[in-house]
Amino acid sequence: MLNIPVFTYYRNLAKVVFCGLLALPLLARISGADAASFQLKPHKDKLFKYRKAIKTEDNGLFVRAPYDPLRDINARDEVPVRKVKTYYTSSRPARHQLDLSFKANGRDVTYFGVGALEGPSNMTVIFVHGRDGSRHLGFSDEKFGGNFNRVKSLMYYNGGIYLSTDITDFKEKGRQDVAALIKKYRAKTKGPMVVACGSMGSHICWRLANVNSSARMIDGIVIMGGFPNDQFLQKRRNKSAPKIPVYIAHGGIDYVYSWEDQKRFYQGLRKAGNPVRYVVFDGGKHGTPVRMIDWRLALNWIAEN
């Protein structure tokens, strides 16, 4: 046994503990880097991947993808718009989904959840609906060509979490409630935390990204049939906020929000150095992106960035 004075022993022990504490942030960064390399495994990719692009720009970051209602609705659905053919969906995740709620900001936050809800999650995706929607929209297995079933299945089969929450306020109350949901599951998520907003729900995505306390918890944003946000863009131009990857999907004849406005926003984000990718569905209307977005492609791109 080594003959070490008691004082020297405890002094050296204290140094070891102190150095270990200093190393914790580094370990966290290493863990984050490992999480960022996570990629979703395929699930029905042949059915949901984009067909050959009509046009690409910026080394594939901008894509004009074909869309044909006769093929993408009538041939895909058993009952057009209402019920997709069964081989586009997986029934197992629906058997394990839960209808949940918790108290936050003096209100009930209600949502559906499926996957590794107790953690650790490889990736968490939260869907925020638009006007007149509800948490049921993001968990609809048969509508929108089965595409919500696909993102649900991708999370379920890849050790992730998928959530769809109710929004009654698209202003600060809505942001606070979604931020509370993000905080609840951020602690259970070792990989990327992604918020996906449809149409008017984009208000929530941008509010989350423009408030530091909620922005720090987000690793990526998906905007479907939404609109740009000048504050988000300006902060990236001024380098006053962290970069958050943004994946945009839009219909080429969307009469609610202009795809051209989103194209200018995309170009501005690229120039500012913020990761961004944009797919326009040629001939698609306002709801087309929810049906046509390739979730695995979008989410894997966010994980890479």
User: Helical content, roughly?
Assistant: 40-55%
Biggest sheet: strand arrangement:
1-2-12-11-10-9-7-8-6-5
CATH class of the largest domain: Alpha Beta
Label the overall shape: globular
Terminal CA distance: 52 Å
The CATH topology name of the largest domain reads Rossmann fold
Topology:
Blueprint (H helix, E strand, L loop, with lengths): L5 H31 L8 H4 L6 E3 L4 E5 L2 H6 L2 E3 L3 E2 L7 H5 L1 E7 L2 E9 L8 E5 L18 H11 L3 E5 L6 H15 L6 E6 L3 H9 L1 H4 L4 E5 L5 H8 L8 E6 L7 H14 L3 E7 L5 H5 L2 H10 L1
Parallel strand pairs: 2-12, 7-8, 7-9, 9-10, 10-11, 11-12
Antiparallel strand pairs: 1-2, 3-4, 5-6, 6-8
Helix pairs in contact: 6-7, 9-10
Molecular structure report:
- By secondary structure, the protein is an alpha/beta fold.
- The protein folds into 2 domains: 1-36; 40-304, Alpha/Beta hydrolase fold, catalytic domain (Rossmann fold).
- It has 12 helices and 12 strands.
- The strands form 2 sheets. The protein has a 10-stranded mixed β-sheet, sandwiched between helices.
- Helix 9 (230-237) runs parallel beside helix 10.
- The chain is globular.
- The N and C termini lie far apart (52 Å).
- The model is unreliable at 1-35 (pLDDT under 50).
Descriptive keywords:
single chain, 305 residues, alpha/beta, ten-stranded mixed sheet, two-stranded antiparallel ribbon, 12 helices, 12 strands, globular
Question: In a nutshell, what does this entry contain?
Answer:
With 305 residues, this protein is α/β, with parallel strands linked by helices.
